[in-house]
C-alpha cells in the first residue's frame, strides 16, 4: 500500500475498525516505512494522553449513580403502572359497571297494543345503567322472521357528581301487524328474562 493510503487508514487502524486484511497490510508497511511508523506512534501517544484517568473512588461514584438511576426508573415504571391500574378500576366501577343480579332488581312491566315498557329499580344502593342492541332474525332467504332486543343491566358505584339514578325504563315496539315474534331479553348476572310480543315467558 502507498503511504497516502496508510496515513488515511491509521486512525481507523488505531481504533480497531479496519479489516483483518487491511491490518496485515498496515503492519507490513509500518515495519518498512519510518515516516508512517512515526505518524502511527504520534497518533497512539495522543490517543493515550486523551484517555481520562479515573480512580477507584470515581468508579464507585459512577456505579452508585447508575444504581440510583436504575432504581428511579423502576420506581417511575411502578408508579405509572399503579396509576393505570387505579384508573382502570375506577373506570370499571364508575363508568363500565358490573353485572347485576335479578335478585337486586325490582321489575315492573306494562304492555300496550304497540309497546312493551319494562321499569327496573336497583335496590342495592348502586346506580343502574344498561347496554342494549336490537337485531332482526332472518331465514335462509334473508326474510325477516323475528326481532330481538337484548338489554344488559349493569350497576355502578354511586357518583355524587353524576347522579345516574337507580331506575331505568326499557322498551320495545310490538308489531302486531307483522307475523313474527318480537323478543325483549333482559340479561342479568344470574338469569335471563324473556318477553315475547310483550308476554313474560322467562
Q: Tell me the total number of β-strands.
A: 9
Overall mean pLDDT: 84
Largest sheet: 6 strands, mixed
Q: State which percent range the strand residues make up.
A: 25-35%
What's the N-to-C terminus distance? 95 Å
Parts with pLDDT < 50 across at least 5 consecutive residues: none
As a percent range, the share of helical residues equals: 40-55%
Q: What's the alpha carbon Rg, rounded to whole Å?
A: 40 Å
Counting helices, strands and paired strands, the structural category is alpha+beta
The tally of helices reads 4
Q: Which H/E pattern describes the elements?
A: HHHHEEEEEEEEE
Approximate shape:
elongated
Could you describe the 3D structure shown?
The protein is an alpha+beta fold and 202 residues long. It has helices at residues 3-14, 20-32, 34-50, 56-96; strands at 98-99, 105-111, 115-122, 127-138, 144-156, 167-173, 182-187, 192-196, 199-200. Strands 1, 4, 5, 7, 8 and 9 form a six-stranded mixed beta sheet that branches. Strands 2-3-6 form a three-stranded antiparallel beta sheet, with no helix packed on it. A hairpin with a 5-residue loop joins β4 (127-138) and β5 (144-156). α1 packs across α2. The longest helix has 41 residues, at 56-96. It starts with a helix and ends with a strand. The model has no long low-confidence stretch (mean pLDDT 84).
In short:
Helix content is 41%, strand content 31%. The chain has 202 residues and is of the alpha+beta class.
